[in-house]
Amino acid sequence: MIRHYFKVAIRSLSKQKVLAFINVSGLSVGVACFILLLLYSVNELSFDRFHKNEKDIYRVYEWTKALDGNGEGSVSMPMPLGPSMKKDMPDVLNYVRLKQPVAESFMRIDNDVRRVQLSYADPQFFSVFTFPFKYGNASTALRAINNLVVTETKAIELFGNDDVIGKMVQIKVENQFQSFVIGGVIWDIPANSSIRFDVMGSFAFLETTNFGQRFNNWYTTSFRTYIQLRPGSSLPNDTKRLEAFHTTYNPAEEPQPKKDRPSVTYGMQPLRSIHTDTMLNDPAGIAAVNPKTIWIIFSIGAGVLFIACINFTTLAIGRSVSRSIEVGIRKVIGAERRQLIFQFLAEALLLSVFSTLLGLLLAELLLPYFDRLT
Predict the structure, then answer these.
(1) N or C: which end of the chain has fewer CB within 10 A?
(2) Residue 281 domain-assigned?
(3) Quick one: how many helices (H) and strands (E) in the chain?
(4) Same domain, 103 and 227
């Protein structure tokens, strides 16, 4: 019986090709738009959620409150901050200092010289954050001072394959080439990560350079500091402890506003909020997105789909009215009301399924262009 319903539905739709085309094209475009905007919204709201310890990871920032009451935050921190927080605060399990590149570095492989973006991080970077390794492991990848970790795609670009553990390269650091060894290869970083890099070096090496020695103080800032807290720690909301810690290492800056100077203190930004917190923007990272913008875009996609559904329903009702003679004949020859309902539902279901499949295909075809656009 069900097979009969679908045969009749196909026959009926073939007689009304124009209406069927309008129905299918309208609904499929609505489905495609909704899927693309849904994928965008989900991607933006899921930034940094793939890390195992993401609930306990925070980025330290410095907040300056001006005399007029307005505030401004900075995520550029001094080099000694991370080790000092771990030493003075029992809630801090681990820390990671990250130095993002401000310019490209020259890498020499045999006689071939390439340009690369070289970042630096503490060896525990891959223990705090979850970036799975394809070759090597998190505990030893940056243990040696001259080790490097590269992404899978970067390894293929540089060496022609990704199994490059132990390969030697030379990178120009402060006017001379230094030798490095590939200590690990990670899978490509997910698109919804606020931390991105192609080549990662050990922070211990950076500390030996002239730049590292010059910036190893509390007065120059050029680093991002992430800390991993004990589960359930109240430190992010404990403003008094953060103010006291800031005063200890920055005695010239007041934690409370004075008549002639602004107040300055430290704060902690949850890792999962970095991408959607527009109060703190990192010039060296991915620009933050206002959550309201994400929800507006998602609402637009849902609205397009809703309008497409209304259009689909209206055309279906109009088509059913024109078939009143067919309905009358079916009743005369003994068709029950339930059978007529199933017949019209079969036609609507057939159109809906076909439109949805077409919409999925359309979204798949448009996804690369949509990615470049967003």
Answers:
(1) N
(2) no
(3) 11, 13
(4) yes
Q: Tell me if residue 97 falls in helix, strand or coil.
A: strand
CB 33 within 8 A of CB 304: yes
Closest CA to 32 of 233, 222, 304, 315: 304
Q: What is the pTM of this model?
A: 0.83
Q: How far is CA 21 from the centre of its chain?
A: 38
What is the chain's percent helix, strand, coil content, to nearest 5?
45, 20, 30
Provide the domain count of the chain.
Answer: 2
Amino acid at 291: P
Helix (H) or strand (E) holding 18: helix 17-45
Same domain flag for 307 and 347:
yes
Residue 162 counted as domain residue: yes
Which residues, in sequence order, are bridge partners of residue 172?
177
Tell me how crowded residue 344 is: count the other CB atoms within 10 A of its CB.
18
Contact status, residue 187 vs residue 132, Cβ threshold 8 Å: yes
Residue 284 included in any domain: no
Q: Are residues 35 and 74 in the same domain?
A: no
Look at residue 255 and tell me if it is in a domain.
yes
- Decide: helix, strand or coil at residue 102: coil
pLDDT tens digits for range 164-214: 999 999 999 988 999 999 999 999 999 899 999 999 999 999 999 999 999
Is 355 exposed, middle or buried, given 0-12, 13-18 or 19+ CB atoms closer than 10 A?
A: buried
